[in-house]
Amino acid sequence: MAHRILLVDDHEIVRQGLRALIDSHDDLDVVGEGASVEDAIKRTGFDSPDMVLLDVRLPDGSGVEACREIRQRFPDVKVLMLTSFADEDALIAAIMAGASGYVLKRIRGDELIDSIRRVCAGESLLDPDMVGRLFDRLRTGGSTDPLLEKLSDQERKILGFIAEGMTNRQIAAEMFLAEKTVKNYVSNMLTKMGMSRRTEAAAYMARLDAERDEPPETWADGSLEPH
After folding, report:
1. DSSP symbol at 59
2. CB 23 within 8 A of CB 41
């Protein structure tokens, strides 16, 4: 029997491309689609998939939240996270939520099909480039920049998101915090750094980026831009 796949992505054109790719293989069958966290949970119950191919960023919340809820309600259903945004915090959150894998949208079609089959077979997989970056960062222990040394781990994460142009609301959704909590973190962070505006902090990170000749958090590689 074909493995039953549910697609959840807020971009219709992405879902259409994924459906065409997946349905071209006899052992895989797309049984439903969704565009939100609410859709992901409801359609899992309605369509009884073997696996949910789930976007990390959705208009009504995080795909990580949807993954956690799906795994709690339907423990036999596997979840493969799919995103164009290479973020180690989301990677860790996805693992903790019970995802079987986390791959980037720059993956080739044949590699994605292989990943889907492996997850449906009960394997666990993660994007190797992303895991490599995560382990490298853990081994190096982060930056030794004097201003960044003053910040807590949480404040450094928020600074990285600010450097990417994210708003407090977007940061709150990404880190599963209240927007007011993020606002307080930003205020404390700027005080420690001797700055008054978040644009100053973003510019500072850009200068560090230029000095190191590598992106601080986004690891842009010329592939699809983040949502």
Report:
1. T
2. no
Q: Are 54 and 79 in contact (CB under 8 A)?
A: yes
Q: 192 and 150 in contact (C-beta within 8 Å)?
A: yes
The token pair at 124 is: 């666990």
Give all strands of the β-sheet with 125-126 in edge-to-edge order. 28-34, 3-8, 51-55, 78-83, 101-104, 125-126
Going by their DSSP bridges, the two strands 51-55 and 78-83 should be labelled as parallel
Q: How many CB atoms lie within 10 A of CB 176?
A: 12
Span 122-162, pLDDT tens digits: 887 765 665 565 555 555 555 456 677 788 878 888 888 88
Write the single-letter amino acid at 46.
F
CA 75 to CA 59: how far, in whole Å? Answer: 25
Q: Give the single-character DSSP code of 28.
A: E
Tokens 């799906």, residue?
A: 70
Contact at 8 Å (CB) between 91 and 65? no
Query: Which residues 6+ apart lie within 8 Å of 122 measured at CB?
Result: 78
- With b meaning 16 or more CB within 10 Å and e meaning fewer, what string describes 43-52? bbeebebbbb
- In the DSSP assignment, the letter for residue 217 is S
Query: Which amino acid type is present at position 171?
Result: I
pTM of the full predicted structure? 0.58
